[in-house]
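Board notes, transcribed. Complex of a protein with flavin-adenine dinucleotide.
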Amino acid sequence: MAAPRIAIVGGGIAGASLAYMLAVERGVAPLLLEREAHCGSHATGRSAALYMPSYGPPTVRAATRASGAFYREPPAGFAAQPLLAPRGALHLALRDDPHAEPSLRALRARLQAAGSPARELDAAAVLALCPVLRPQQVLGGLLEAEALDMDVDAILQGFLRGARRAGAELHTDSAVLEARRADGRWRLRTAHASFDADIVVDAAGAWADALGALAGATPIGLQPKRRSAFLFDPPSDVAGWRDWPTLIDLAERFYVKPDAGCLLGSPANADPAEPHDVQPEEIDIASGIWAIEQATTLHIRRPRATWAGLRSFVADGEPVVGFDPNLPGWFWLAGQGGYGIQSAPGLARAAAALLLDGTLGAAWAAAGLRAEAIAPGRG
Ligand SMILES: Cc1cc2nc3c(=O)[nH]c(=O)nc-3n(C[C@H](O)[C@H](O)[C@H](O)COP(=O)(O)OP(=O)(O)OC[C@H]3O[C@@H](n4cnc5c(N)ncnc54)[C@H](O)[C@@H]3O)c2cc1C
């Protein structure tokens, strides 16, 4: 049987990783259409680049673990440098958080259940790891050594380059404006061209429901949420800051991590938004700075850069991967929330299996990934 012609809409990590898995691992080179001049301009290019296998709901965690092997040992020629680097995540129990102790207990139980090794640290050990934390604030913490930095640009470019080499056709500046089905095929129209396909993959990130609406799909109920971040200067009088783990407030008021010769801070906000080229609100940055300065002796005079991106979720927080139950030839790859980079190779392999084999197979079930848990229209 001839391979189906697959058109992927969206050139973020979701679309790029699927194009790679289809073209390189399954020998079915797809078409990839991206609205912007460069792939990765939206959520993918704005992430905090942390790989944390304990983070997210069960299917996300399974997909993240399944992605670890690919990121640790990518195929030869995928990237010139390692994709992962040691970082660690230090979950902080702070005194001004009334729920700090129960939150710490709950996290410890969750990490144990998920098989994620984490070391409990008392206040002295936390302060030894990160001496800018205010001693009067620190109750203790949990250190997750499995959390790693990702090189997101190398990952994205590796997927795109590999997919292209294996025959995938990539078109940037190609916003899909119309999606019509006739005679059992899809016709996608952009401002400059039309493309025919047997199957359309909706990997449009925060715009997934908007793209689906063009085709007459029932919405999956995607809610984009703004998360803001900023870069600031490290302290000039404290050594060793480059080796700090990511500091994560258990009450989710902030996180901080070393990044690109600076420190990256975020208020860990999740403000509902319409899909658009989102910018940070002043209040996001101010509240992130305030929370970091409450917990540490860091002084953030002026951030070097600020940005925001949209993390998009459906109601149960799990991704949506599979054929639409009512619209023939329409396949969703959306709702990756705050975990889309860390889980990309695993989810893309799962998507390729569902697209080409119609099933995930036994190996995925053993890995904790069931098609029903990620199916569009699940109950
Ligand atoms: C501040 C922040 C921190 C984060 N930190 C992490 C982290 O540490 N680890 C992690 O794993 N994840 C993290 N994430 C989440 C991660 O970035 C997302 O889950 C992931 O990037 C989603 O990828 P995507 O390809 O679905 O979406 P996107 O990257 O947004 O890509 C969708 C693409 O579709 C295109 N598109 C939309 N409509 C059309 C159309 N009609 N025609 C053509 N193209 C279209 C858009 O232009 C866009 O490029 C973070 C996100 C944010 C915002």
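The chain is about 30% helix and 25% strand. The chain has two domains: 6-80+151-221+316-374, 89-145+223-312.
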